[in-house]
Design goal:
alpha+beta, 6-stranded mixed beta sheet, 6-stranded antiparallel beta sheet, 48 strands
Amino acid sequence: MSSAPAPASASQPPAFRDPALPLRKRVDDLLSRLTPDERIAMLHQHVPAVPRLGLAAFRTGSEALHGVSWMGVATVFPQAVGLGATWDEDLVRRVAEAVSVELRAFHHHRTPAVGDGPHSLQAWAPVLNLLRDPRWGRNEEGYSEDPVHTARLGEAYCRGLAGDHPAYLRTAPVLKHFLAYNNEDDRCTTSSGVRPRVLHEYDLAAFRPVVASGAATGAMAAYNLVNGRPCHVSPLIENELRRWARPTGHELFVVSDAEAPSNLVDPEHYFDDHAESHAAALKAGIDSFTDHDEDSATPVGRLREALERGLTTQADVDRAVRRQLELRFRLGEFDPDLDPYAGIGPEVIDCPEHRALARHAATESVVLLKNDGLLPLDPARTPRIAVIGPLADTLCEDWYSGTMPYQVTVADGLAAALGAHGGEVVRVEGADRVALRSRTTGELLGKTAFDVTDWGRGMLTLRAADTGHYLSLKDDDATVAADQKGLKNWFVKETFRMEPAGADTVLLRSVFTGRYAAVDPTDGHVTVTADAPDAAERWERELLRDGAAEARAAAGAADAAVVVLGNHPMVNGRETEDRADIDLPATQEELLRTVAAVRPETALVVMSSYPYAVDWADEHLPAVAWTSHGGQETGHALAAVLLGEADPAGRLPQTWYRGDDPLPDPLDYDIIKAGWTYQYHPAAPLYPFGHGLSYTDFSYRDLRLSRPSTGPDGAVDVTVTLVNTGARAGSEVVQLYVRALDARHEAPGLRLADFRKTRLEPGESSEVTFRLPAERLAHWDVATSAFTVDPGGYEIIVARSAGHPVLTAPLTVTGTAPAPRGVVERRTLAVDFDDYADVTLVDATRTDGDAVTPTDLTRPGTLIFRDVDLSGAVRIEAETAREDAGPGDARLVVEVGDHVLAELDVPLTGDRHAWRTIAGELDGPPEGVHDLRLTLHGDFRLSAFRFGTPGGAD
């Protein structure tokens, strides 16, 4: 219980208003003054005001991933994956600082469209989810496929958001989305199977350094489940996130994702009712419930019911409220006269300094993937450039973009730059212009022609030729109208399919509803209401302009062509929808080949949220570059790089796989066994992680270590000399990788340990030194449930990319070799295997623990535990759960080599979370060290096992 507050008099303000008091005392005092009802009301995203105490309304969460989102015009920087391509921590910090300054301006000077209180200063950014699968619909939101790279840039972004004042925050960064979230399809019900090594070495490794640094103030739980348990009730929130934060002196304020608390009941069916689920989330560490939008009555009512039913306690409520109050104090809410950021005015929004920074960030993020000498383009030799493609003269906003104050397209940027040299740009979209005429009425759809863009998988946008606006489906009456300037809505209603229905005849089908356009023969009214093709209108498709022919002509008449292809961030891969593959849309690929056939001097610019398989372009074109959707200054940035005003300084933050490379299943989160990322993928990629070319040349020499060996707790200095041997200034990202030699575990082929971006003038050299702690060589030891650095040989590698090592040096780690794994008279978790086949990781209980179960009941599941010392073992005990009889029997078989040690029948327990220990004597007790194999036959779960000795405990 909170202590009673000190009484306040008219002349003496309450203690929580006294900035001289320690923060904890101020929080304690304010909490004690709040009634139980006021406290529980604070658990919702929209927190009501408490006028009697002078507390204003408060809300959690403003989107601030690469600019202030959803509040109107604001500076728009490159997507997060583009910021990741800069490999520049200082630049990322400065971008975040600009974003936070603008968010402060919105907070003080702009009124929200919904809800009470000002815009939140809690910034829901950055995203630390790793880009394991390039098909992820939200790939654009992450920085990298690598945890070290992601953590470094994530910490930089947090520091930029938070500011550097010792007491007050400019904004409060919240890390998204905890944890192992990398698929959109069925994201609220899919479970990410993450075994301990992957959990600690990969997924947690992106969050751990950022939280431990103190740069983050909060985290958001993810929609998905991990090992069968929803992230919103995960014990990892307390056991990992908050444990890392404890030494910083501040607790993390953890928020739910939108509607995720309700998802715990439906669609996840993890709990029977909402009071139970909300109680579980609160006790697991969720402090704020983002649910039912600004309607707090329903979520707060559920939490109140949970309290009344004894599912939670007042202490649980107080703990969450305390974390919120601490954050509000740190944001200066109660000390407006002392808040160093309170004076930020609206003039900072889209100010000249932020425009310049947006241009610099976009320029630094451009990655040159291939160059056979075409780039940089010389305006004297190529005064006429054809800029071709669906993204040649348009920029796109993604769901988390702000509203761009202006747009400099690629064509705009090149036109401005070439114009200064007397050159010119020819702009060609390469889209067909068509007229769709009703067979029923003879009228044109929309009374206009349309420019049709194919974004892949048959998804088309139709833009009116007369206005440039997109055809859109209307909610109220299912009509269509060309009245949308762009695509940016949670429900995208501007995509259609044209399905063949005879010669030059099509059916028009809405992607959003799946229904077809129909025409009322009496009045000609067009509605998208037909459920089947038979009831759909037939539209005569007349080709008014051949986009490919126009592109061919423009390219043939130009000195060079720049073809800009890629994705629209709101179509196909996006939040709630993964990509099916990594291929360029077929029509875009055809357009590229058409242009290249007549103009060999063609450069491909891929503008996208994710990698594409551009195998043909890499083989046949002289130059290929990539940029993310880079924001308002994209065109200036690309023009600077293409024309050589700027050196291409970006490097890939994720692997670009080849088109014929069969990628693992999207739901296979085991990067080790599945072979994800540069660390484990067996096939050579098209472009490796860290790849990027420059217009100058760099050489590396004199790699040396400060010592040839170190202990497991030691460190070495790694020094290399970098020289710009070219004729112009440029940037190089020096990448330091490590590799374990003769590892006893399945070690990555390479693992990034450090990196440094260095800019050098021609002929300039720089000595780059990295401090390499031995802990960077550690792996998660499943035998001891801890990180360990094995003694033995390692290779230290300086590289231009994961696929381009330059120099290597050996390093020896000294120490005692690890002993065989002890399992006798010791409880061993089933998930702590060394290898496995045909098993799925599941939850042991609703609150804690993991277990395994066969993936397919027609095949047994297998667990392998290597180098197990079974000396003295005479029996085995196993903890099992079996909900119902199911098909066939259920048994656990224990083997070493070809010898069956025990075979245990698994009894019914009636519930998947009800556990029973079964036991059996070993047949021919083994001695010494063996590889142990456990085989699970039938429908049951195994959480742990234990071998016993004759004199061991029962």
